[in-house]
Queue: 3 jobs
Job 1
Amino acid sequence: MPLRPKPDAMPRKIVGAAFISLDGVIQAPGGPGEDDQGDFPYGGWLEPVADEAVGEQIDGLFDGPFDLLLGRRTYDIFASYWPFQPMDGPIAALFAKVEKFVLTRSDAPLEWVGSHRLADIDALAALKQQDGPDLVIQGSSTLYPQLFQRGLIDKLVLMLAPVAVGQGKRLFGEGTPAGTFKLVEQRVGSKGNVVLTYEPAGKLETGTFATQEVSERELERREKVKAGTW
């Protein structure tokens, strides 16, 4: 039976929170072996440069009520790690308590206590309209293009590390629509991490800095671009 919002329901917000390199990679920031898919060689790229700005943002993300929203691969990573950590640790105990919603086409069982399958993006959109805490995304690069396409992201929190990884899964992957974001918060850590919080602000608009008419030479160049001969 499809989920239906209550008349007085306050829609949940979806918050995308990502550790991200300067060149846009979000794969395996935590440690070697976390996600080696695609022969990714740099697992654990965040730890050497992590600073107080990153730590404070993580604390802020998980300070109030929330549920987790995960792709299947990130869910598998989390479910193979966090339930086996000491429960006197703050993150392990917290993740054990919250609900875990997994957007996946797979029928494989979700064995981590408190886990729920979302079969498609429509199921997620319906969940978003229900009473409940915000949904916080961790990792899950495959979720972002489809969430942006449907306008389901309410806030984007980027913990931008001062490293270039050169390869790996990216936040703005194939299928991400063009758009504009409004910066609502920023701060810089002692090791150069920049925490940036954005909210979607509508369609991408274009303009020009050109102050004169286009020259004949420029028109010729553009024709070569169209013809593939430039």
Note: The mean pLDDT is 94.
Job 2
Amino acid sequence: MAFSLLASPVPAAESAPPDRVTVEVITANGSGCPPGTSAVAVAHDKTAFTVTYSDYLAQVGVGAKPTDVRKNCQLALRIHYPQGFTYAIQKADYRGYANLQAGARGLQRANYYFQGMSATESRSHWFNGPYADSWQATDTSEGPNMVYAPCGETRNLNVNTELRVQAGSSNPSTTTSFMTMDSTDGSIRTTYHFSWKRCD
């Protein structure tokens, strides 16, 4: 993902904070994450957190409503971590399952930003039918392209995701194509990888 640089001192490189890190969902809005259908958990080593959805499905064709072709979710997250540290999102791994008929296409798109700052450029990933398998898309930011939360300030991390399915040359009157980022058993997760630094 592309970022604009923060106009603040660059902190020194550091491993994960020694104390507890938690992620709190402040709000979850969108057709892809109705109330009670998303959950967040922090990895034990504090290098990442995962988001699990249970009702995130875009589809077109037989049985689908016109509004089902696009689903989205905006999460406002509060990251709690020890003072003296800050973080950026270095990498995001998105996963799901798609069943796309020949001629159909599926899109996964995402961006994120800190409260009060400009949104990152959306990175789009297309999948072309015929396709019936799990899918994965990874967005990576390295070095000077990583934007860190301002030191000493508490700002929500806003995460925006979108799934879209296009019928294309497939026949939506006789077939159904869908793309999902949900998981009924918790095995499919979206993972955001932290880059930690110590504030000056």
Note: The chain has a mean pLDDT of 87.
Job 3
Amino acid sequence: MSKLNYLLPRAAVTAFAALIAVSSASAQQAPTVRIRGTIEGVDGNTLGIKTREGTDVKVKMTDNVAVFAVVKTQLSEIKEGSYIGVTGMPEPDGTQKAIAVHIFPENQRGAAEGFRPWDARANSTMTNATVAQSVKGTDGQNITVKYKDGEKKVVVPPDTPIVTFTASDKSEIKPGAKLIIFGAAKRDDGSLEANRVNVGRDGITPPM
């Protein structure tokens, strides 16, 4: 057998193994759906939700679902070094005008870091980053945030909703409560499953 003929089967096996590995990884990473809405009912681990768009969906919570309450806080809680998420609207000068800010708990520092399009409203953005500087300006608080690939200048008007996440439990999950699920996994059968649910406490609608 020639050396070339000997190598070809081995190369084919290696390529096939790589293909299987990629296929397995793809199969494990189910597409996700962001859901905002109101809890209409709870049946065991299944939530009935009226979405922001007016449709009815059911989402199964995993057995180890993490529940976080979204609670109001103050602009003064945003300090240099805080890790925050800014829901913003682009301004002509390149800054972001905040329409909501959420402060991450320290154990969630680095979560989804970066700048990206967002769906809070048309053309909105999300910046998850660390506060490098915060000074009072004429239109509100001027904040510079830095993330691994860059930085953004953010203006936070005085009436901007400021919230934070507080670890909680399923007692938060009740009809009438507003929620946001950042990434419900969409299974092959079309069903939705969530391992984290964020619920507005005391009637709050999560603003992000």
Note: Residues 2-27 have pLDDT under 50 and may be disordered.
